[in-house]
Design brief:
Elements: H1 2-42, H2 47-72, H3 84-105, H4 108-120, H5 126-150, H6 157-235, H7 245-274, H8 278-291, E1 295-300, H9 309-326, E2 327-339, E3 342-351, H10 364-375, E4 379-385, E5 388-396, H11 410-414
Parallel strand pairs: 1-2
Antiparallel strand pairs: 2-3, 3-5, 4-5
Helix pairs in contact: 1-2, 1-6, 2-3, 3-4, 4-5, 4-6, 5-6, 6-7, 8-9, 9-10
């Protein structure tokens, strides 16, 4: 359940970044169009033609969205025309708009910009993309210079200054577009690396557990098999040795002892994996919160290794689940230290809503933890103020010596939905 919540938050973060990239590209295109219309107005272009150019420019900007959406789901190994059916209409719109605006204004640069920008949005390979952008900037600079000499040579200073501004934005349009797409590629690469690292870590942990279980159980099972085989021979008539029930019984006792050793070894192995030091427990909690899109930090005392992990470990896990399920998802802070002979653990996060729905601090999760901590002489407090939800657990130094069953926390861990 927690993994699903974290995945949803990650997906929301990636989607928000993607639409930020799209809006940045489109805003820059609209700025180009606005400067464009300002130049045409000063050139005394016919109002009807000016209106058609404005409407055509908005259609051109809208036609760029399918190209951006196709880029989002691109295949690194595919070429720029791999999904050619999806790019035909946007390119046709860019060409038509370029021809219309170029004929209306008589400017080469104005006619070339729409097609150049649309081609920049295609899925070019990385090396080809860089060379293509350099070529586009060179073409834009050349066409800008030609139009300056042919059309604006001798024009008034106001029109010339606007044309210089348009040339600057036109030259930076491909650069800005490619930079935005490059930033998106970096984000996707980081997200894939994070997912691959998580899968690799889980695989390595499974392999380590499998190796330890194999070594432990393989040894004991082999010993037990030999002991049972020897007992069978001692009890079988006509075997290689004389019947010796007493010796066979001794071998059965040894086999039973080996079974007990195997069980104890398995139990110790399980406890070793479950008994995580509290600094590592808090580090894992911070990593989990950050992976779910929450800004999290922790302050841990240098001697926190001595804190009672059997008591505070379930508290850390339960409160972390609380933050993921019911928190606002923006920030969280964890603190563990010794205060007046007591270990004090505190977690603070932003509340999910102003009215406190879903974060009242009641429920079997925190109530169960409070009961178990109280059995060790400690206390759990839940506070809510100024849009923050706070859980504070204090336990004595000797709390770790109090026998506590992990199953006591099973309800809280199995049903995180009832935490608050």
């Amino acid at each position: 359940m927690t993994d699903a919540i974290g995945a949803r938050r990650l997906n929301r973060g990636i989607t928000a970044t993607w639409w930020y990239t799209v809006s940045g590209v489109l805003v820059f295109q609209v700025m180009i169009l606005f400067i464009w219309l300002s130049i045409f107005a000063r050139m005394r272009v016919d109002p009807v033609a000016l209106t058609l150019i404005g409407v055509g420019g908005l259609i051109w900007c809208a036609a760029s969205v399918p190209l951006l959406l196709q880029y989002r789901h691109r295949d690194d190994s595919a070429g720029p025309v791999a999904g050619w059916r999806g790019i035909l209409i946007p390119l046709a719109v860019a060409i038509a708009f370029g021809v219309l605006s170029g004929l209306a204004s008589g400017l080469w640069l104005v006619g070339a910009i729409p097609l150049i920008q649309s081609l920049t949005l295609l899925n070019w390979p990385r090396g080809v993309r860089l060379r293509f952008v350099i070529a586009c900037v060179a073409v834009i600079a050349a066409l800008w210079f030609i139009d300056l000499k042919m059309t604006f040579d001798g024009a008034d200073a106001e029109v010339t200054s606007v044309w210089f501004l348009f040339g600057f934005f036109a030259a930076t349009l491909p650069l800005m577009t490619v930079t935005s797409l490059w930033w998106w590629d970096v984000l996707v690469t980081l997200d894939r690396a994070r997912a691959a690292e998580a899968r690799l870590g889980a695989t390595q942990e499974r392999l380590r557990v499998a190796t330890d279980v194999h070594d432990l159980q393989g040894h004991h099972l082999q010993v037990i098999a030999l002991q049972l085989e020897l007992a069978e021979r001692l009890l079988s008539p006509g075997g290689e040795k004389q019947r010796d029930p007493d010796a066979a019984l001794e071998q059965l006792r040894l086999a039973r002892a080996s079974v007990a050793e195997a069980r104890q070894g398995t139990r110790d192995l399980a406890m070793r994996f479950r008994g995580v030091p509290l600094p590592d427990e808090i580090a894992n909690a911070v990593d989990l919160l950050r992976a779910a899109g929450t800004t999290a930090d922790a302050t841990v005392s240098p001697d926190a290794v001595a804190a009672p992990a059997s008591v505070l470990g379930p508290v850390i896990r339960e409160t972390t689940t609380n933050v993921l399920r019911h928190g606002g998802g923006n920030r969280a802070r964890l603190t563990l230290g010794r205060v007046d002979g007591m270990w004090r653990y505190e977690i603070v996060n932003d509340a999910a809503s102003a009215n406190g729905d879903g974060a009242s601090g009641s429920g079997s999760g925190l109530d169960g933890i409070a009961r178990r901590v109280a059995e060790t002489g400690g206390e759990v407090r839940v506070e809510r103020e100024r849009g923050e939800f706070r859980v504070i657990a204090t336990v004595p130094d000797a709390a770790g010596a109090v026998p506590m069953q992990d199953a006591a926390f099973g309800d809280a861990a199995a049903e995180p939905g009832s935490a608050r």
